[in-house]
Write a structure and sequence with these properties.
By secondary structure, this protein is mostly beta strands. The protein has a domain of 125 residues: Outer Surface Protein A, domain 3 (Alpha-Beta Complex), CATH 3.90.930. Helix content is 6%, strand content 61%. The protein has one helix and 29 strands. The protein has a 29-stranded antiparallel sheet that branches. Strand 21 and strand 22 form a beta hairpin. It starts with a helix and ends with a strand. The N terminus is likely disordered.
């Protein structure tokens, strides 16, 4: 039998017991010292909970029900007033929404969450309240969105993100929560590489390469301490025609900018100054008709 089946049987047996013998009538009592003792009924927002106190501390299994119903909403086990063992939550339709494990009020072990369609939403591993091990996040159809590994609360190793339908979107490398090594992105169809670049201590360093889905090189640009620097050149898939030439300074477009049609004819020519268009810009339509526009600090100058 699965763990969920065993839990369900346990719930049903408790509901059956309550329905047959009713709840204890001697409830919500305190002793001479004012400490809660015995069976108690409590309300938290829209949940009614039942369970036992010993010397003002919760003990054993506590059951929560959706208000005004006999539908279980939660189960939590306590020892010496602290959460210990399994805790689960159930929606009004009887679907599991969360399952988690505690040690002395601290998340410890595998936590699972579910969408209202019963599909898995996330799986997270904890070691005494700290993320440790695999963490998975899913789309509402149950397919993977993110798959990462944690060590002492920080991402460590390869972390993957996916498009809907489970096609790989990106693959990043981490060390102690910081990007280190080769970082990759992929096209939605198949597993064709889209970009790759190296990271050092969380900053891109070296050449970023962008590819067409065919695997042919599309463009390159250099990173220095996380910022684009220098020339970026983009070509057609066959590499025969230059489509764009741009210059960067500290991650901003700066200097001559040229853009071309696939025929090789000019499309747009001008200059940038720290990310803003400056001076005379020439723009050609597909038939070669020229339009000239003047810019100052990125703002188009009024026409004379």
């Amino acid at each position: 039998m699965t763990k969920y089946f065993l839990i369900a049987v346990f719930f049903l047996s408790q509901q059956f017991a309550f329905s047959q013998i009713g709840l204890p009538k001697d409830t919500n009592k305190t002793d001479a010292a004012g400490l809660k003792q015995g069976f108690w009924k409590e309300q938290y927002q829209s949940t009614i909970t039942y369970g036992y106190y010993a010397n003002n501390k919760k003990e054993g299994s506590w059951y929560g029900y959706h208000y005004g119903t006999t539908q279980l909403q939660s189960l939590q086990h306590y020892k010496n007033g602290m959460k210990n063992g399994i805790g689960i939550q159930i929606d009004k339709n009887g679907n599991y929404t969360k399952e988690e494990f505690y040690t002395n009020d601290t998340l410890d072990g595998l936590q699972k969450e579910y969408f209202d369609n019963a599909k898995p939403k996330s799986e997270t591993n904890y070691n005494m309240g700290v993320l440790n091990g695999k963490k998975k996040i899913m789309y509402n159809d149950g397919t993977m969105m993110e798959d990462a590994n944690y060590l002492n609360g920080k991402k460590d190793g390869i972390a993957k993100w996916f498009y809907g339908g489970s096609a790989l979107m990106s693959e990043y490398n981490y060390k102690n929560g910081v990007q280190q090594g080769i970082q990759k992105t992929f096209y939605k169809k198949g597993t064709a590489l889209q970009t790759e670049v190296n990271a050092i201590d969380g900053l891109y360093e070296g050449e970023l390469k962008e590819y067409y889905e065919s695997g042919k090189l599309k463009s390159t640009v250099k990173y220095v301490k996380g910022k684009k620097q220098g020339l970026q050149k983009t070509t057609t898939e066959d590499g025969k025609v230059t489509l764009r030439i741009a210059n960067y300074k500290d991650d901003e477009l700066d200097g001559d900018y040229k853009e071309f049609y696939e025929s090789g004819k000019p499309k747009q020519l001008g200059k940038y100054k720290m990310g803003k268009k400056e001076g005379e810009w020439k723009e050609y339509d597909a038939d070669g008709k020229l339009t000239i526009t003047l810019f100052k600090d990125g703002v188009q100058a009024p026409k004379k």
